[in-house]
Specification:
With about 240 residues, the protein is α/β, with parallel strands linked by helices. It has helices at about 45-50, 100-105, 110-125, 125-130, 140-155, 170-185, 200-205, 225-230, 230-235, and strands spanning about 5-15, 20-30, 35-40, 55-65, 70, 85, 160-165, 190-195, 210-215, 215-220. It folds into 2 domains: about 1-80 and about 160-240, Rossmann fold (3-Layer(aba) Sandwich), CATH 3.40.50; about 90-155, no CATH class. Strand 4 and strand 5 form a beta hairpin. Helix 5 (about 140-155) runs parallel beside helix 6 (about 170-185). The structure holds adenosine-5'-triphosphate (ATP) and magnesium ion.
């Protein structure tokens, strides 16, 4: 028998209070993949991510992590399960330095020496942050803040890293840098589930993609096939 996917959503229904927003959503992420979740505003992309980490109520269906059911888990257990989450809007501690923000990312690590070692490891991966380690996070550019948000999520050594709109609001130069960085992470063996408005760019770096519309699966395929799919291009990639 082959190993189960790292993440497997089966027939997931989810709601905000009485309002159902996900309908029988299916999604798989294999170890070492970048999977892009795209679709129009309000399609339910963020809700998919939030339902995985228990921020949204799951009505029906199952969420499995490496075969183990985690449906409806408490949000604060996500890091223990090896799930990293970079929310939309790169929420940081603005009045703490880059280094302090990274240290906060390893809050479960009791040993201060080990925590410092992890900080150095992440700074090695993000030279731009290393140069600004003593700068307050609130003084960084948007792109640097996004790097820091990603770096901080890596401090827990997640098995699965989920990113909600990592390129949102960034200048083109930083969008390029963020996507390049995500590819580096994939090449290092990380597994990424990414929600992106910037659908074409996301599919260019992803292995596979899912298109969500009105809370339902619309297309699912290899990213290169989605990029060539005429309906996907017309409806979701700006007709390019
Ligand atoms: N906290 C909330 N309470 C009630 N409804 C919500 C809440 N958050 C989102 N919704 C609704 O759920 C639906 C899906 O929203 P979601 O944020 O998942 O979409 P999205 O695909 O991430 O959109 P966007 O591209 O705008 O980020 C939308 O109709 C939205 O209005
Ligand atoms: Mg969203």
């Amino acid at each position: 028998m082959s190993a189960p996917p790292l993440l497997h959503l089966q027939q997931l229904d989810a709601s905000y209070g009485p309002i159902q927003v996900l309908f029988s959503v299916q999604l798989e992420v294999q170890p070492g993949e970048i999977v892009a979740l795209i679709g129009p505003n309000g399609a339910g992309k963020s809700t998919v991510i939030k339902s995985i980490i228990g921020l949204v109520r799951v009505l029906r269906g199952q969420i499995r992590l490496a075969g183990r059911e985690i449906t409806g888990m408490a949000t604060h257990h996500a890091p223990l399960h090896g799930i990293g989450y970079v929310p939309q809007g790169r929420i940081l501690f603005a009045r703490m330095t880059v280094r302090e923000n990274l240290e906060m990312g390893a809050f479960l690590q009791q040993d201060p020496r080990e925590r410092r070692r992890l900080v150095e490891e992440v700074l090695d991966q993000f030279p731009q942050l290393a140069a600004r380690a003593q700068v307050l996070a609130g003084h960084l550019s948007g792109g640097e803040q996004q790097m820091l948000a990603i770096g901080r999520s890596l401090m827990m050594r997640p098995k699965l890293l989920m990113l909600d709109e990592p390129s949102l609001g960034l200048s083109p130069k930083y969008v390029d840098q963020i996507f390049a960085q995500l590819l580096v992470l994939r090449d290092q063996g990380h597994t990424l589930l990414m929600v992106e408005q910037n659908a074409a760019r996301a599919l260019e770096i992803a292995d596979r993609g899912y298109v969500l519309e009105l809370g339902r699966n619309r297309f699912a395929d290899r990213a290169s096939a989605l990029l060539e799919n005429e309906a996907v291009r017309r409806l979701y990639l700006g007709g390019v």
